[in-house]
Amino acid sequence: MTQMAGHYIAGAWRDDGAAPAESTDPADGSVLGRYVPGTRALAEEAAESARETFEEGTWAMSPRQRAQALYEIADRIAAAKDEIADLVVAENGKLRSEALGETMGAISEARYYAGLARAIRGTMQEIAPGSVSLFQREPAGVAGIIVPWNAPVTLLIRSLAPALAAGCTAVIKPAAQTPLVHARIMKCLAECPSLPAGVVNSVNENGTEVGEAIVASPDIHVISFTGSSLTGKKIMEGAAKTLKRVGLELGGKAPAVVFDDADLDNAVRELTHGSLNMAGQICVAAARFLVHESIAWAFEERMLAAYRKVKVGPGADPESEMGSLIDLPSQQRLLRLIEQAGDEGELLLKGKPLAKGAFLTPTLFRIEDVRSPLVQEELFGPIVSLETFGDEAEAVAKANATAYGLAASVHTSDVARAMRVSRAIRAGTVWINSHLRLFAEAETGGYGQSGLGRLHGLEGLHDFLETKHVYLEPGTV
Ligand code: NAD
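Above: the input record for the complex with nicotinamide-adenine-dinucleotide. Below: its predicted structure, written as tokens.
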């Protein structure tokens, strides 16, 4: 599986830039291929190409062509889905089922926005007799798309599909950890006859040089960023210099609130998957179990039994139930956090590395101090806190006690309580009696430090559209 991932600018593959770097398999450290790190100059060239294509071509006024291009993208990814899923497993370390799931999610997303591309309309109002105002929905221009490594297929298409549907052109910057997966997706795009050269451009990262250049570029009008809250703040600061719009899908610390009337078997099943999917490296993962004190013991016992049973191993092994972390530095960071959890709380199950590879078994720790950084900060791995509450008001207060507000789940058999608590929790998504259900049709996004704007769904288009008021003076035309 040795290959070289280049940049893709103005419809041509490029391998100029810095000296090639290696991409490795986190499960065993083997070298999978190489990629060419980008430069500021390449990012600027890609932005110029995207701006010229936007201004000089007819892409922005061709909704049927854009729909066709998105269907072609979906078809090309579908035709290569097994190869793409294998590459995601190799480069990211997640399970084969998770890798295929994210690939299928991307296909569904591209098809959803293909349909929407033909449904974007403005409105009209007669503000006074004979005085006509048109409110046109126009593409915002060039979109700069910056994606993380944890779901390199889905998270790219989640931003790119609405950008293309809206009529934008794009400059993409993949994460340095997953350049080969990204290049394979770009190959799918390069094969689409309805996608003109220059509409989608991509430059690999080199430290933070390329990302910063995209954020600073005067040729780019809107940034769609998915990543950590810390980087999101830097991007917002950088974008202020050219006053570009930013859509930010950031970190999370999702609480799962389990009431005493919940179906415990269902809650434990949902939360095992909801917390350990992608080895806990997913922004909406259940990161805090908030459990009513009367059932805390029963919940703890069942959760520990479920966690102990999880078979951690290579993503490519069909027997594995949880894959590897993204890399060894992540494993070392999480091992230090586990020690901290032992000091600040009580370790109920201590995660351990495997003999080789970036693996870590699940950790569950009990803690009552919500001010602890272990509760306040995103840990991004298979480490979950167990906290208790006495009544509904305390459950809501604890669920809202972090700066994040990306997702949450509520487990109860009382529908009135489910609606009350979901209303009171400040998060962009609240799942009832489930955790981790994502759909192309359903908006995702954050409250507080989890971000700005929404992706997925109809609102996913908003980041990439401007509204223009055109006024016709009565009696003049
Ligand atoms: P990260 O913030 O370190 O990096 C994300 C991307 O930003 C990468 O492509 C990186 O190269 C780039 N980047 C880093 N510094 C930059 C800068 N100064 N200017 C421009 N670009 C820069 O995040 P990560 O470790 O790759 O991903 C994990 C994080 O992403 C977690 O916090 C997770 O919660 C978050 N995430 C959020 C969502 C969501 O939908 N809200 C989805 C997935 C992941």
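Notes for the reader.
The chain has a mean pLDDT of 97.
Residues 129 and 474 are 8 Å apart (CA to CA).
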